[in-house]
Structure formats: C-alpha cells, structure tokens
Specification:
- The chain is an all-alpha fold.
- It has one domain: NCX, central ion-binding region (A middle domain of Talin 1, Up-down Bundle), CATH 1.20.1420.
- 75% of the residues lie in helices and 1% in strands.
- It has a two-stranded antiparallel ribbon.
C-alpha cells in the first residue's frame, strides 16, 4: 500500500467503471462487445474497491476499516433490493429473503471458508480472538433466526410472512442489535476485534495523509456503486443463461450476491494471506450482520409502499443449511485457532448451498 500517493490505476478505474455502467444501464441485451467490457469493469471495480478500503483502513485503523467496507457495500445493496422490490413483479415477494439468506451463506461459509483455507495453507495454523468472532456470530444466528425462520411458524398472517406489527418489531430489533454490536466493536471492546498476531510489514508504514484517505473513501463509494450497478446490469444476461441451463431463477439472486460481495471476499483473502485472520472474520461476520441489521429495517419501511405479501420465512432445505452453518461456525470459532480442516468444512457447506441452488 502506498502511504504517500495513490497509484494512477486506482484513480482511473472507478470513473471508468462508472462510465461503462452508464453505457450499459437499462440495456437488457449487452451484446458481444459490451458484455466483456462490463465484466472487465466489474472486476476492475472490485480490485480498486479493495485497494481503497485498505488505504482507508490503514488511516483509521482496525476495526473501523473493515466496518466501513462492510457497511458501504450493504447500504448500496439494500438500496438496490428496495428499488427492485418497489418496482413490483412476482419475484418481489421473496427477493429480500433470498438475498439475505444468500448473503449469510456466502459470508459465513464462503468468505470464512476460503479465508481459513488460504490462510492455513500459507501459515499452517492461524490464531484469532474467539470471544470477538464468537459474539459476532451469536448475533448473526439470533437475528437470522428471528428474521427468516420464525416467519415460517407465526400464525398472525398467512404463509411464511410477518404481520405488520411483527415486521416492525423485527426491523427495530435488528437495527438495535446491529447498533449495539457496532458500539461494542468500535468503542466498548475495540481491542477484542484487533488482529491477535500482527506480522504485517505494511502496518508499520506511515499512515496515508488525511487528504489521501478522504480521496480513497470517495473512490471506494464510487467503486461500490459501480460494482452493484454493473452486477444489476449483467443480471438479465445471467438470467437468460440460467434459463438456458434449466436452473431455477433463484440462482440469479445467488450469482448477483456473489458479485456484490466480491470486494469483501478479496479483502478477506488478502488479510488471511497476511496472517490477519481476525480482519477476515471481521469482514465476513460484519457483512453478515450489516446485511440483516440494515435490510430488515429497510424492507419494514418499504413495505408501506410495496403491495402484496412479503415472504420472509425460509423453507425446510434452507433451515437445514442454516442449522448446519450455525453448528459448524460455532465449533470453528470456539477454539480461537484454525487449520485447513475448518476451512474445508465451511467450503463444503457453501458448495452444498450452491449445488442445491442449481438443483433444488
């Protein structure tokens, strides 16, 4: 990381990605020329977002850096979800549920799994703070159970839905719990979420100037807007490809979630390779918490304008995967040490989620 000035490519990629987004926005058929350009811009925006997030994180310190990236991505993602829901359509009823569940599986199994695996392959065994990551995972499990499991069993409204009062309570509870977690992470027990072992040479370099950090913060937001917008732009092409393959349309939501969460994935892997697994876990679990803590309140407010039912309750298959995620995640985080075995198990659960999304 350059602590003095930003490299030219990091300054050029964000506006170029937005320019490509402007050309492709609203087009249902990107064509043979624009589709590769959109994919290239999407990949460049992801890499640039990670770079600028690291610049900001080096300036403000952990865990603020990971929190900024997680919240920024989630806010933009929530805005996209609410926009799609208010536009109506038969898929609007389950859009929030499918997106939140996909994000939970990607963050708690995909990102955690690959970070554990690549980190252990390089460093054999990696240490992290079990009390910090375990408490964050406990909040994730509590919120996802209340928001996505209980609606299947409530009786105040038909189907896997909440009544108006129940949805309002779920929105307030999610927001309050996420606020308490952020307070604990950044103020009350900030030291719990710092890397247990710090062997990264870059951390001892001079921090970037305030002006450089502010520029990177602005460009980070531009990159994230480009990532989400380009993911939405390429979604019609993905939908046609999924239909041609005979896979269920719900797979499109999973693919879009994978694209949107790509910046966190790359940043988590880079941190794990530097023997900073705690940063990787902060990113993964922080993203999961932000997704629930911000999406549920947003759709609770948006439901005032959204016509038709809002299905939040998971089906039996998804509940089994969620229960397995809870059990495996608890056993992984309770030890405070990770090897390739834990990473492989999480990736197996994530692979099962992807496989069943293709062949339900």
């Amino acid at each position: 990381m350059n602590a003095i000035a930003l490299p030219r490519w990091a300054l050029a990629v964000p506006p170029l990605a937005v320019l490509v987004l402007a050309f492709g926005w609203g087009k249902t058929d990107l064509g043979p020329f624009l589709l590769p350009l959109v994919c290239l811009a999407l990949g460049g925006a992801v890499v640039a977002a990670v770079h600028h997030a690291e610049v900001v994180a080096h300036r403000v310190g952990e865990p603020f850096g990971t929190l900024i990236l997680a919240v920024a991505v989630t806010v933009i993602e929530v805005a996209l979800i609410v926009t799609l829901m208010t536009s109506g359509g038969e898929k609007a009823a389950t859009l929030a549920r499918d997106t939140v569940f996909a994000a939970i599986m990607i963050t708690c199994n995909g990102i955690v799994g690959i970070a554990l695996l690549v980190g252990a392959l390089r460093h054999r065994v990696q240490d992290f703070r079990a009390h910090a990551s375990g408490s964050a995972f406990a909040v994730v499990l509590a919120l996802v159970t209340f928001s996505l499991v209980l609606p299947t069993f409530t009786t105040s409204s038909p189907g896997a839905t909440f009544s108006g009062a129940q949805l309002a309570f779920a929105g307030v509870a999610s927001l309050v719990m996420y606020g308490i977690f952020v307070f604990v992470q950044t103020v009350r027990h900030r030291d719990y979420f710092l890397p247990k072992v710090d062997r990264t040479p870059d951390d001892h370099a001079d921090a970037p100037a305030t002006r450089t950090a502010l520029i990177s913060l602005g460009l980070l937001l531009v990159c994230l807007v480009a990532v989400v917008g380009l993911a939405k732009t390429v979604s019609p092409t993905l939908e046609r490809a999924v239909e041609a393959a005979g896979a269920p349309l719900s797979l499109v939501g999973v693919l879009i979630a994978l694209l949107v969460l790509a910046p966190e994935t790359v940043a988590a892997v880079r941190a794990a390779l530097r023997d900073r697994l705690q940063v990787s876990l902060n990113l993964a679990l922080g993203s999961a918490l932000a997704t629930i803590g911000l999406t549920i309140p947003a759709i609770a407010v948006a439901s005032i304008w959204i016509g038709g039912p809002l299905v939040l309750g998971l089906g039996g298959k998804e509940m089994v995967l969620l229960a397995l995620t809870g059990a495996v995640g608890t056993l992984t985080l309770v030890s405070g040490r990770a090897t390739v075995l834990q990473g492989a198990v999480h990736l197996m659960v994530f692979s099962s989620f992807l496989f069943l999304a293709v062949t339900p």
